[in-house]
Amino acid sequence: MSGFIEWLEKINEKNSKVRAVLRRSLAFEPGAYVEAYPYVEPFVKGEANSLRREVHYLVAGLWAMHKQESRAGESMSLGRASAIHQIASGSTSTERRFITLLDADHDQLPHRLRQMVALLKEYAIDFEALLKGLLNWNDDRKRTQNAWARDFYKHVESEPETTNTKEKIK
Fold it and tell me: 163 and 101, same structural domain?
């Protein structure tokens, strides 16, 4: 565990404008919004890999735009949150968006993730797991994409359509 989200939560407690600045950073390429530097750079200092730096900036922005505060043990993977959203909403468009996200290349990823995280605003997402997955996004074997897909379909298949999904996730 990197502790990045814990770091962001800690500095957010001290400075109420952190979330606003990081949300604004999503309008720019990851790592290109200078105002976000004070909140991400201390954590990634010395990181030479530009992809790793960009992922940290992207996740910081996504964390900031997400309204749901996660409490220990309540946050869930993006795959599970997507599955639960699909079941709760009854919309098959969630699955289409999720598949589009899984197929996204490096350039499409920020846009697709912003869409998905906005859609899942009611669910506590595990942003540390999201960060870890995105750091391995370009793996030749697509381990992150496969893990997210397994998690999505495991929960879609296991949730009966007639039950109250919100009760099941408690």
Answer: yes
